[in-house]
């Protein structure tokens, strides 16, 4: 892999470096400033509330499987709530990204935030064993709300940062990991404490309402909307599928997400079923997301030196190995070690996903389209991954089957990223010959 170090540096720094001297002069980036850092804080809070809530879905999944929707609905059916939510979070960016480029940042953020809080309050009035009510509020409603805000809130950072963009995006995405620490602890205390499920969801909704309102006041756009919309999504799609490296990488993200979210959604349930002390079991997801916070920031410091694929591939390989190792994790010490290690490496992959996709863009104008199309297909992988794992688990909790499925899918994703790296090396050799 050392032969392609120069290539990897090129593709990874393309994400954060000016493409040409002329382009750097045409638009000046303050690389911060008071409003730039306030916007970053607002984006971090948005990520904390929205995607952080997705990372905390394991608490809901545990509660639904063991109490709220059981025994009327099986684990595989309940898993569709989280998987549909994940699909909409990722796939909605294809539409919201175009709307952001057209100057609709504020309507997207205000509308998405209002929908998020509304759906949480509606979730708080659902009835036990009423699957359709929970699915509409949490699967469809929250998924759409998070998807509406996800790409625009990250995109607004490009108005202020270019040289530091990869690092800033890593910091912003760490908000979702921190949310994955705070939300599970809070929700577990509420659901299994004096408040109960319904009052607990209302308390969570009220907190998130205040945070979202504050974040929307902090964020400001700086650049005018794009005057030219450029090629349509369909035209861009047909152009991109002629790029073998991009196609293989997209397939890799699809199969990787089929398995990488299994521990995030099921780690608490597995700890409870294994009979771990509630003080340990109810904090496993928070521990995993705490490690994920570190994983989303630290690797971004070395990407510029080693190259994005040279960092992503070992991280995904580690996730695959850890998925298989979950077969032997049954006690408290093993669960905590697993949560820390898997949280770090999965967080690193999620934090480097955007730079990896953008590194294959031929110019900055393609970055948004490539990310939107990739996230759309990746969301489809998230749609089917956890329900398949839930069906393999069954109501008898046969853990080896979904663990094997998760390990194999992440391994397949790692092989796809290796293939993409090899195609990039071959392309470089062809250009130099």
From TrEMBL:
Residues 1-24 are annotated as: Disordered. Its main location: membrane. Pfam families: MFS_1. It is a multi-pass membrane protein. One of its GO terms (cellular component) is membrane. The chain crosses the membrane at residues 37-58, 104-125, 131-154, 166-185, 205-223, 244-268, 280-299, 306-329, 335-361, 373-393, 399-424. Residues 1-11 have a biased composition (Basic and acidic residues). It is found in: Membrane. GO terms for molecular function: transmembrane transporter activity. Keywords: Membrane, Transmembrane, Transmembrane helix. PANTHER family: MFS-TYPE TRANSPORTER DBAD-RELATED, MONOCARBOXYLATE TRANSPORTER. Belongs to the major facilitator superfamily. Monocarboxylate porter (TC 2.A.1.13) family. This is MFS general substrate transporter. The lineage of its organism: Eukaryota, Fungi, Dikarya, Basidiomycota, Agaricomycotina.
